[in-house]
Amino acid sequence: MESPAENPSKAAEYLKELNKIIETQQELLEKQKRRIDELEQQVAKLYHENACLQDEHHRHLATCRLQQGVPPAPPGVLSAIQENARHENLQILSGCTCQSSCLSSELSQPGNEVGMFASAQILA
Known about the structure:
The longest helix is centred in the N-terminal third of the chain and has 63 residues. Helix 3 runs antiparallel to helix 4. The chain is rod-shaped, with a radius of gyration of 30 Å. The protein has four helices and no strands. The protein is mostly helical.
């Protein structure tokens, strides 16, 4: 059997190991919290960017409608899909080639690898 002198030293070693584990876990939690904060900031930035792009797109569609002499649609009547189809039909009828140039400029924004691929596919 172990002597009473060895027991406290083993207990102390065990506590030191547990403290190391706790410290490591706390560091990991802090890193994860920082990463979550970074990702939340990135999501907020993307929401804002998306809203700006949607607004820009709606203004572009309205400009194209005005150039074609088509009255603007009442708010909320047409869905985005219907509006895009209408825009494409107007482009076909008028010979407008702005779609490829608009898409290539919007999709090829810095850091948008997917957009760059998509714009390359559209222009090909």
